[in-house]
Amino acid sequence: xxxxxxxxxxxxxxxxxxxxxxxxxxxxxxxxxxxxxxxxxxxxxxxxxxxxxxxxxxxxxxxxxxxxxxxxxxxxxxxxxxxxxxxxxxxxxxxxxxxxxxxxxxxxxxxxxxxxxxxxxxxxxxxxxxxxxxxxxxxxxxxxxxxxxxxxxxxxxxxxxxxxxxxxxxxxxxxxxxxxxxxxxxxxxxxxxxxxxxxxxxxxxxxxxxxxxxxxxxxxxxxxxxxxxxxxxxxxxxxxxxxxxxxxxxxxxxxxxxxxxxxxxxxxxxxxxxxxxxxxxxxxxxxxxxxxxxxxxxxxxxxxxxxxxxxxxxxxxxxxxxxxxxxxxxxxxxxxxxxxxxxxxxxxxxxxxxxxxxxxxxxxxxxxxxxxxxxxxxxxxxxxxxxxxxxxxxxxxxxxxxxxxxxxxxxxxxxxxxxxxxxxxxxxxxxxxxxxxxxxxxxxxxxxxxxxxxxxxxxxxxxxxxxxxxxxxxxxxxxxxxxxxxxxxxxxxxxxxxxxxxxxxxxxxxxxxxxxxxxxxxxxxxxxxxxxxxxxxxxxxxxxxxxxxxxxxxxxxxx
Length: 559
Hints:
Elements: H1 3-7, E1 13-18, H2 22-33, E2 38-41, E3 57-58, H3 69-85, E4 91-100, H4 105-119, E5 132-135, H5 136-142, E6 150-160, H6 163-176, E7 180-182, E8 185-192, E9 199-206, E10 212-222, H7 228-233, E11 244-254, E12 262-266, E13 272-278, E14 281-285, E15 289-290, H8 302-315, E16 324-335, E17 349-353, E18 362-367, H9 373-388, H10 410-417, H11 421-431, H12 435-444, E19 451-453, E20 458-459, H13 460-469, H14 475-482, H15 495-506, H16 510-529, H17 534-550
Parallel strand pairs: 1-2, 1-10, 2-7, 4-12, 10-18
Antiparallel strand pairs: 3-6, 4-6, 5-6, 8-9, 9-10, 11-14, 11-15, 11-16, 12-13, 13-14, 17-18, 19-20
Helix pairs in contact: 2-6, 2-9, 10-11, 13-14, 13-15, 15-16, 16-17
């Protein structure tokens, strides 16, 4: 159907959202809650970009307090809202900030203490605990692994979250309220009225099936993060109309919790970095460098890994002996500014109305951060709702996300299903009240209680649930929703079985499941190798060769 023919009938939807990150899924959910008809298109997978590759915190951002307190306030306020709507996904992370002994150390400790006294004013917004000033002995007692000499330190707290699960929850809620969500679907163009230039919908291509189509709409929202300038070009605009300054951030993963406290450190150039206990592993991060490369293949480098490890090791020497199991990287869609260093750029957000560019009805979401996604989505939806005459107020701050509507006793769940307590606990963390749906599958099919991924752990029923009910189409997608294959084994003990299950659920040939498993393992190797020593790298090469043999692929190379 041509654009002219499409314009002669009522639009298919009220709003098209492009982008399946936290901002895009947040807008899709908010708009459906206000009674608008929504279609969302994501070229890769939900949480493929920065949302699924962040530091995994809904934090208040104390470092923004000195130069952008508005961001600190909005982040803390939205943290409180997110805790209310998705309580199962949040976990408290206590931080320790040591102050190194030296000539000016006591003055520095006073200044840091005063700074966090100001941050305490925001803590009630996010149910945070007030900071505490620690002596050197108290600091050492809390975490003996912190290197000295230190004059003392500060403790404060933040909240951790699984960003990918947050995106999935928002998308699922939108779908259950009537939205259409298509992953692995490229928007080839943003269609505009030939006469007025107004946005009228999108032309898309399903990258899995090859299906093509046009979806007409009354408004189009560009929520593609670091891809925003490229998406604007697909609407016939200049990339400058939705300009961002992409900042690459990488993290290094370690195979277990090395401490129960996050520890603030400094890199060789004085940048603030950190070690963070996150879920059942440890993360160190993060870098912040201008990025001009391929946004679909953002990878950490060995230089970046060494930069982080060196900085953290000065404060927490055990990191140098810990087992690194991988890396991940994302690009922040920071508000554009020419001249400032990356760390000095604003973490605020902005809604761009492209009516000024001759494209009425087209909007871009620029900037923002995971911790204030809900607020940004509300602001964007407010603009669209006013344009479309929707008067229902925003309720995303009070309506629970899927899984957040009730509390599940993971101990009782483990007993009733006959599964390991840790497996039950992780299931409840990821799905909250929705874990009962997976439990019901297991009660009907007890064999689905089998553990597919022992590192996380992940049950067979959860893998099948991800494919049937959470828009997963591949091993990589399942991993993003469940953390399958992201533990110490890197997928070598679970990718093949996951590929079999995905193929069964989607009616694909077994060879396709094997291909997906091998592609996942190849990606994992890429992200791990920059963090591994030579002995571990050789061992992993042997294991991969063994896995290829088990899959019946012999010496062939995966394309």
